[in-house]
Amino acid sequence: MTLGTADDNDDSEEPEDICDLCGLLLDGDYVSFAVVADSSAVHDQSDHLDGQRIVLACCDQHLTERRASYERRPFVEAELWAGQIERARRRHPAGLTEQQLRCEAGLSVHQFRQAQAWSHHSKRLPPPRQDPLGGFAAQ
Ligand SMILES: [Zn+2]
Q1: Which region ranges are annotated with the description Disordered (predicted)?
Q2: How far is the CA of 83 from the centre of ligand 1 (A)?
Q3: Which residue, among 76, 115, 79, 83, has the nearest Cα to 91 in the 3D structure?
Q4: Buried b (16+ CB within 10 A) or exposed e, 56-95
Q5: How many angstroms separate the alpha carbon of residue 110 from the centre of ligand 1?
Q6: pLDDT over threshold 90, residue 138
Q7: Phi-psi category of 51—alpha, beta or left, where left has phi over 0 and alpha has psi -120 to 50?
Q8: How many A from CA of 137 to the centre of ligand 1?
Q9: 87 CB-side CA count, 13 A
Q10: Residue 46 Cα, ligand 1 centroid: separation in angstroms?
Q11: pTM of the predicted model, to two decimals?
């Protein structure tokens, strides 16, 4: 897990960041952030960050609360693999064979089967934001 702060305020056209706990607009004067393990995090642009999520907060207390909510959420490898399969499907809307899909997702046969089983039979985990113990307090 990585911790850090950033205080640059570039004027790029990226969407504005908000505190992941209270929803406060982060104007760049002070941003507290951490990288947390999250098996539901699959990124469209950077496969190597799969399973990791950047959490932003307006203060250290809110960052600590958000990190704690992710630490309570189980990391389920099959959920991560299922997300990687879904990303592969999005990248190839015309369709792929099962073997092509498995290769595109970078999964072994065993991982592919585990992901399918998870998708069909497992109870979906709520995102930490909806965890009542996580203290989400958006208005
Ligand atoms: Zn906050």
Answers
A1: 118-139
A2: 28
A3: 83
A4: bbbeeebbebbbebbeebeeeebbbbbbbbebbeeeeeee
A5: 41
A6: no
A7: left
A8: 9
A9: 20
A10: 27
A11: 0.74
